């Protein structure tokens, strides 16, 4: 069995020799199999582009520990007794890594329980396969129901397959920059979508968003508010239109310039700038962090205790203890 990914070989003996053990992970492959002529012995073969013959590590009686705390992220470490090294694996596909480690476990428990191929370097590829960065699905039969999505994906297109629910496995793609789910039947999106760290382009046109009870909480995510550059919600059933869209994204150049003028107290007058800009600058809202904002802001309403803002109070209704006040925020941080 073979897996491909970024693998770091860390020698545990180097620190005791006062030698830095810092190294870099290399794009490489790790294979589990048997040596020619030794059917009872199981080995790991680590191959890189610079080392096509590979480095062999004995498995039977030589595995000290296997660290799988971050297995769902495609990461694991195999600690060997001799030589004293750790194979730190960052695999493209978490499911493949899990299958590889299950095979390794079977080999440790019963070396005859698995059918492994004979290790050979004659068929080593000149280049290690590059990680998959784009996936396009236009038919239901192509959907990765069992195998899942490779963690290296940067672009995913799932179009015209009548998908009714958002696949939450997509939320695990930390490198995803473009997501196209157009021409489906999605009615809602999970709140966690707003936490995707790299998402820049999101196509949601021709779905059924807004058909049921509208839920746009994903727009309030701290990451997506900073990274998203294109959002297409055309041809949905958004009634009413989500208010957060109006103030979504990066402030305009005019907004940034006006904020700077107010914050730095730059003098302005009709002799210096057009009247329309005078009116614009004379109507700022102030964030709770004291940042001025004009068109790009978020507004909410809170209750202010009357006892905190007045020394004496006369009320016609004793149940009223707070006065409503508008509060503005310059961003979604």
From TrEMBL:
One of its GO terms (cellular component) is cytoplasm. The keyword Aminoacyl-tRNA synthetase does not apply. Residues 1-115 form the PIF1/LRR1 pleckstrin homology domain. Pfam families: LRR_4, PH_LRR1. InterPro entries: Leu-rich_rpt, Leu-rich_rpt_4, Leu-rich_rpt_typical-subtyp, LRR_dom_sf, LRR_domain-containing, PIF1/LRR1_PH. Keywords: Leucine-rich repeat, Nucleus, Repeat. This is PIF1/LRR1 pleckstrin homology domain-containing protein. It comes from Timema genevievae (Walking stick).
């Amino acid at each position: 069995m073979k897996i491909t990914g970024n693998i770091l070989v860390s020698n545990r003996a180097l620190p005791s020799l006062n030698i830095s053990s810092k190294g870099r992970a290399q794009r490489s492959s790790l294979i589990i199999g048997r040596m020619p002529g030794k059917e009872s012995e199981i080995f790991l073969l680590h191959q890189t582009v610079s080392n096509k013959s590979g480095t062999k590590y004995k498995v039977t009686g030589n595995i000290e520990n296997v660290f799988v705390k971050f297995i769902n992220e495609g990461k694991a470490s195999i600690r060997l007794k001799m030589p004293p090294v750790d194979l730190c694996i960052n695999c493209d596909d978490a499911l493949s890594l899990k299958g590889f480690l299950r095979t390794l476990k079977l080999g440790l428990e019963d070396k005859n329980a698995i059918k492994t191929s004979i290790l050979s370097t004659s068929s080593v590829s000149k280049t290690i396969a590059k990680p998959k960065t784009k996936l396009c699905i236009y038919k239901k039969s192509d959907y990765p129901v069992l195998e899942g999505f490779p963690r290296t994906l940067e672009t995913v297109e799932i179009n015209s397959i009548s998908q009714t629910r958002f696949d939450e496995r997509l939320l695990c793609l930390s490198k995803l920059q473009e997501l196209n789910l157009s021409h489906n039947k999605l009615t809602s999106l999970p709140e966690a979508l707003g936490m995707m760290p790299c998402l820049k382009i999101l196509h949601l046109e021709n779905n059924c968003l807004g058909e049921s009870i509208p839920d746009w909480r994903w727009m309030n995510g701290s990451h997506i508010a900073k990274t998203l550059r294109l959002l297409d919600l055309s041809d949905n059933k958004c009634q009413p239109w989500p208010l957060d869209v109006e103030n979504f994204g990066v402030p305009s150049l005019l907004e940034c310039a006006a904020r700077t003028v107010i914050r730095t107290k730059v003098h302005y007058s009709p002799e210096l700038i057009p009247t329309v800009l005078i009116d614009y600058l004379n109507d700022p809202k102030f964030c709770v962090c004291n940042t001025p904002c004009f068109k790009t802001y978020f507004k909410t309403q809170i209750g202010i205790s009357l006892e905190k803002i007045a020394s004496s109070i006369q009320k016609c209704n004793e149940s009223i203890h707070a006065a409503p006040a508008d509060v503005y925020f310059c961003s979604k941080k």
